[in-house]
Amino acid sequence: MSSTIRSENALIDIGVNLTHRSFEKTLISIVNRAKNANVSKLVITGISELDSIKGINICKDLSKNFPNMIYTTCGIHPHHAKEYNSESFNNLKEIASDKSVVAIGEIGLDFNRNISTPKEQEIAFENQLQLATELGLPVFLHERDAHKRQLEILSTHRAQLKNVVIHCFTGTKAALFNYLDLDLYIGITGWICDERRGGELKNNVGNIPINRLMVETDAPYLLPNIIKKTSKNRINEPAFLPLVVEEIAKHRPESIIEISKKTTSNSTQFFNLI
Ligand SMILES: [Zn+2]
User: Fold this and answer.
1) What fold is seen in the domain 7-271?
2) Which parts of the chain sit beneath pLDDT 50?
């Protein structure tokens, strides 16, 4: 990895959890390392009202050192859906009015652990889809073990929504085509670098139209396997995003540079990044 910025193939990390406590004391160096690894823009993932405010504050704090580089989403993750109450819609609307907020998310359904009940998740999800419609903002989606229901809810709202991305996609080929039929963008993480668990994704990634593909680290989670093997580092960070693109390129006809350029232009347009 070169340490100089090469603008023609700079990357955008559309999903990084910079509000996570593991980044608390290291934010500046994390963003510097991202920049040196040719990751030119980052979109922080918001997971609750408070967390979305934290994301905005990080954008503000870092804007002096890193102008036009860091943005955030605003939303309530399905795990936090139980926090969604009668004031949430207006609270989120107020939070989303900040100029650093570029999407509503991450929102959706996660029936894997049901940290919030399915009913609570559906209420929070539908209300936030309405919020995105009202604000004309794109949507950053999360889904785990809930494809059928997520698709049903999404289908009823899709016509009113602008752009929608399903982040950290790891589903089946059928699920992928269902999302593509709804004209969704697909976010791919370092999950694809995992020999065992990334197998299906390696086979599926070639089916994503290049104009619907975006990349993300989901840092500090999902450390690519190759880093696990070669260093003691156990925390993922945006500087490792090029590894995701390198792996994707092994399973697609385009070169690394072409994938970099295209995912960057997709993300720039999707989030309307200036
Ligand atoms: Zn997620």
Assistant:
1) TIM Barrel (3.20.20)
2) 1-4
